[in-house]
Amino acid sequence: MLLPLGAIALLFSQIHACAGSAAPPVITQFAPPAVQHSWAAYTPYFAVEPYTPPPEGCRIDQVRAFLQRHGARFPTSGASTGILTALNKLQSATSFTDPRLDFLRNYTYALGKNGDLIPFGAFQSEEAGKEAYARYSHLVSPQNLPFVRASSAERTVDSATNWTLGFSIASNHVLNPPLAVGNDTLDDSMCPNAGSSDAQTGVWTAIYGAPIAARLNAAAPGANLTAADISAFIPICPFESAAKDATSPFCALFTPAEFAQFEYFGDLDKFYGTGYGQPLGRVQGVGYVNELLARLTGAPVRLGTQVNATLDTDPTTFPLSRALYADFTHDNQMAAIYAALGLFAQRAPLDPAAPDARRTWVASRLTPFSGRMVVERLACAGGAPHVRVLVNDALQPLEFCGSDRDGLCTLAAFVASQAYARGNGLGDFAKCFT
């Protein structure tokens, strides 16, 4: 389904109206970066490194993927249940011995429960659209607009809508890309037999959560919080901070070291949920990688996995001639795509009982709210096209295709390195259903 610009503007106005006439949210109001960047998948977007322009002798001629997670949202219904369970325990305490808990005497939980995009999330996506125009406007024109898609989830559609409006605003409304909604490769539940990360996150929660629960129980006699409550409760800090555009009082209940421990909980969740640690994790990203390869090479999409054959064999719903593509999805699906590509590979699987300070798989750097992966195709002196990948502006070392010091692989080497995707998961996709 394609949404015309009028519908996009109307939808954006409905989302953005929630913010009223207030100034755009500023994420530095929430908490110091050292704390914000320990909120795992609930971290607001930040550039991990400054953007690196192409090296001398190369120019970007195509952006074959601008893959972005939806913006900041309210908790999902499941997350809300965990938050409320812990909150009710604290509020049932007979007294508070720590003044940081006094606000709970008159506190009422008021966050949404269905994972809906919040005004700050809308703002994040609009800003991303403006940034994309500033960086890549030389690639597009009214005759060659960005091709923009979103999974069917409301928050990804809303995020894509705000991105397209941001792009339009930055172009003085000359470039108004439509939005295509619904594509299986952008959904995040395409492997029924895949396991979960519960076993691994449970081990770590028992280790780091118990001391925190004990401390809070001492400060709130009768609360009887458990270690399991802690991993469910800490997210109220980032959720409420983003929703209210101010640091939540719940953030003061945890130390920077405890937030860092929560970060590792989030790392384990993504690694063993749809990442390298899940036997059927990276196969969930194979369909999207094959679409990326088709865009890079101009060849038909390899079918047989999550790819929707009806959409991807129709040049209207899956064109190969655009110079800029933007796709909106979820963090779980992005983790699977990273693993399918070979990004952020670990020397060893993450240990559920002991964080490795040198690990490359860190959720806040991989999939923050509005996090993004960009795949640029470059024309370089010498003739052969090249590819480079950036995640949250950090240039990725593509060892799997022999990248040089500028992070460049030849297009041919990059395509050849994707044997797992080109082999449709080498039998793993069938295991999702049998």
UniProtKB/TrEMBL annotation:
Keyword Magnesium applies: no
GO molecular function (one): inositol hexakisphosphate 3-phosphatase activity
Keyword Hydrolase applies: yes
Stretch forming the signal peptide: 1-17
Disulfide bonds: 58-380, 191-432, 237-251, 401-409
Keyword field: Disulfide bond, Glycoprotein, Hydrolase, Secreted, Signal
SUPFAM superfamilies for the chain: Phosphoglycerate mutase-like (SSF53254)
Active site (record annotation): 70, 331
Highest taxon of the lineage: Eukaryota
CDD domains from the UniProt entry: HP_HAP_like
Major subcellular location class: secreted
This protein's GO CC annotations: extracellular region
Subunit structure: Monomer.
Name under which the protein is recorded: Phytase A
Species assigned in the record: Hypholoma sublateritium (strain FD-334 SS-4)
